[in-house]
Amino acid sequence: MDGQLKLKQASVLLVGAGGLGAPLGLYLAAAGIGRIGLVDFDVVDFTNLQRQVIHGTKDVGRKKIDSAFETMRDINPFVQLDRHETALSSENAFQIFKDYDYVVDGTDNFPTRYLVNDACVLLNKPNVYGSIFRFEGQATVFAYEGGPCYRCLYPEPPPPGLVPSCAEGGVLGILPGVIGLIQATETVKLILGIGQPLVGRLLLYDALGMKFRELKLRKNPDCPICGDHRTITQLIDYQEFCGIPHQPVEAAPVTGDIEPSEVKQKQDRGDNFVLIDVREPHEYQIARIPGARLIPLGELPKRLGELNKLDEFVMHCKSGMRSAKAVDLLKQAGFAKVRNMKGGILAWSDKVDPTVPKY
Amino acid sequence: MARILIPTPLRQFAEKNDSVELTGTTVGEVLGALTSRFPDLKKHLYNDEGKLRSFVNVYLNDEDIRYIGKEASPVKEADTLSIVPSIAGGAHRG
Fold it and tell me: Would you say A179 and A51 are in contact if contact means Cβ atoms under 8 Å apart?
């Protein structure tokens, strides 16, 4: 009963409602943590469901934070759930972190991991760390009562491109479940003050070999943020630190109309964009543009979860009217790079490829 | 012969091996033997100045070599070396 009270009085911030955040959210809510905050601004996609078990097929297209909270509330309606629907940044990290006892890092990129670490070290909050790659994972607790931090382990991130990302490598769907639950276990242990916390030890998990190994994790006296001669005393620009160039100013506009000939050029150049045909299936049977993906206008609102907001889109229909509506719809849903192909497939037939029949 | 464990992200540069047995009396010698056998690994482990990259940690058994003599750390028969690179996966782009 004492333990349950400690859990009830505790507050935990989850950074990320993805692969690691999913099992964490489920079990920490079930454990009866008093207050759980969640930082996430992403939307549920079909490809997430293989590992992000806090979301289901009915949630595709919804905000992850809404979907996760609904599930957690269903498991335990007595947990206070605090939303932080934003990208964690150097500007907001202190403000968000300061009201929580523990921070659990379930992010997926180096800039955010260094940001979470630095904010935890500077605010003196334990950082329950987990990370995954394909078939292996790592877990530890950083910055616990002056213990080693992420920078003690890795002073610097790899330059972009040198280490393949999860997106390239993929990940065994079950893996974040294992690592996320190790993080959940450590969080609950810290709150209850029981057992030996995973401090000063880096736990490595190899799913293929089904082996757990443990390495010593020492505090680095030369650590730039928690060492004897610290040089970092405030949050920095983590994109720059990780060698990621700031988004360049867009040279060509990615809104408005685009000529069919320009779409053809983009295809020939192998530009990275998605051509969406919003006509009906029977029209698609009559004539189609190679490479176009059929999503009829009427189905588009409920199929937005299939599309990635970061991609560039060209929408087309028969003559350009329905696709203009589709462009508006995508923009309202937060898609930034969407254009309408002028004159539709009729213009394509006239100007690009006369073998495409007109109807 | 010391065993050296190769982590998943680097196996593609080591003919898919997850571990290899190599000879060497120091950590530096074993790593040298590793990169001669798999030259593609070199740029992932060392920077242009020939120093171990700061996002790649090497452990001799369970000790981080940075605290026990770095690449000069003596290696005995039956020791295990692990390369542990930083990985960042965990959320939505997985």
Answer: no
